[in-house]
Amino acid sequence: MICRKCKAPAEVSLPSHNTAFCRDCFAIYFTRQVEKAIRHHALIKYGERVLVALSGGKDSLTLMLELSRLEYDVTGLHVDLGIPVSSSAARAKVEGFCERHGLKLNVVELAKHGLPIPDVKKYINRPVCSACGKIKRHWFNRVALEGGFQVLATGHNLDDEVARLFANTLRWDAGYLSDQGPCLEAESGFARKIKPLYRLTEFETACYAFLNGIEIHSAPCPYSGGASFTGHKELWANLEYTSPGTKIAFYDGFLLRGRPAFAHVEQQSGAALAPCESCGSPTSTGLCGVCRLGIAVAERRAAAPDRQSDPDRQSTPDLQSDPDR
Amino acid sequence: MITVFVEPDNETLTFARHNTVLMLQRRLGLRVNDALIIRGGRLLTPDSRLNDGDEIRIRKVMSTG
User: Fold this and answer.
1) Is A23 at the interface with chain B, CB within 8 A?
2) For B2-60, which CATH superfamily applies?
3) Domain that includes residue A87, residue range
4) What domain count does chain A have?
5) Burial state string for A223-236 with b = 16 or more CB within 10 A and e = fewer than 16
6) Terminal CA-to-CA distance of chain B, rounded, Å?
7) Which of A149, A253, A287, B57 has the fewest CB atoms within 10 Å, i.e. the most exposed one?
8) Quick check: B45 and A10 CB within 8 A?
9) Which A positions 87-106 lie with beta carbon below 8 A of chain B?
10) Residue B43 to residue A1: CA distance in whole angstroms
11) For residue B43, which residues of chain A lie inside 8 Å, CB to CB?
């Protein structure tokens, strides 16, 4: 294959776009996709402070590097989950990356806040991935607001977004369908949340990371076995393989025609939010879900410090009453 | 002989012969954009020819949480 633009030998084949690029032209293509996302959805204005959530994976590190090259004012945020071996390896990749590129980094250690994920898994009777996601989103938003950042950026790519949209559609979850998209405006105690990589696939971010020498943390989370999104991604990969371009058409079609209809419904039925009595994060109950989780873990840790996983454990805090952004 | 190292499975495979990257991907049950195919610091496209003695790194791209 040859590069569509300069006719040099291609390194990246993109059937979805019926094209191929050499590494230099792929870099230009990648940047233009990010710029297009930012421009079309007014994701960031120059001068705004952007907090970028960094897991250590290819997507978040790629996003950080690309936004810094576009001269946005970016700072990284890594949440150390406290999972043995896995978390220290991920954190080392993030710290090494930021040091190498001269980028600012904040780290939140969940163990210091009484909620290391192994304890959540041990003491709370609910899927750990759900609770972990909730806790991470809580800290992303909290650090953004407390640190004076106008924007919170995450590295969600097209595959992530399509898999999430598909899951939300399977459940006809009007709440999530009303606000899924590349930009959630700041409101009710939430920073503006953006996904500048939403037009790019996992393959494309992996190519970018490789071609830019980014060292990534690629080992799967030891607690994530059987996550449903992985199955949905597999299904969509088959669809994309047989009909290139299906993913972006599905997602763009939703943004254009689906989301506005669900947003109208949610405006009429959305719950009122108020600051959490403990941490100030937005919640529809007195204490937010993460503060209630922290209390539950602390109580059960004190009552039975050596307890093992038990399917018959007592009930757990209801996190669903909190907004999830 | 072609040597193939698969990430993140950390598995090493050897094959007597495959003419192209696409043939290798099909042999491994991979779709075109399921993985980066790397040889000597460069990415290979599906039509790239493989040679005897090649050392190929396959980096699967689907994140699993």
Assistant:
1) yes
2) Beta-grasp domain (3.10.20.30)
3) 33-219+228-272
4) 1
5) bbeebebbebbeeb
6) 35
7) A253
8) yes
9) none
10) 12
11) 11-12, 23, 207, 210-211
For residue A288, tell me if it sits in a domain: no
**Cβ of residue A179 closer than 8 Å to a chain B Cβ:** no
Do A52 and A73 form a contact (C-beta atoms < 8 A)?
no
Q: Over the stretch B11-55, which tens digit does the pLDDT of each residue have? A: 999 998 778 999 999 999 999 999 999 999 999 999 999 999 999
Q: Write the ipTM.
A: 0.95
Q: In what order do the strands lie in the sheet with A104-109?
A: A104-109, A73-80, A49-53, A151-153, A192-194, A183-184
**Other CB atoms within 10 Å distance of the CB of residue A83:** 20
Of A93, A94, A117, A118, the closest CA to residue A104 belongs to A94
Contact A222, A87 (CB under 8 A): no
Please give the pLDDT value at position B42.
97
Report yes or no: A237 at the B interface, CB cutoff 8 Å: yes
CATH number at residue A209: 3.40.50.620
| List of chain B residues whose C-beta atoms are within 8 Å of the C-beta of residue A207 | 36, 43
Q: Name residues whose C-beta falls within 8 Å of residue A138's C-beta, 6 or more positions apart in sequence.
A: A281, A288, A289, A290
Contact A216/B at CB under 8 A: no
Residue A262, CA atoms < 13 Å, CB-side half-sphere: 19
Residue A57 lies in a domain: yes
Q: How many CB atoms lie within 10 A of CB B43?
A: 22
Of A20, A210, A237, the CB nearest to B31: A237
Q: Do A11 and B36 touch (CB under 8 A)?
A: no
Range in A35-49, A68-82, A147-161, A262-276 the model is least confident about: A262-276
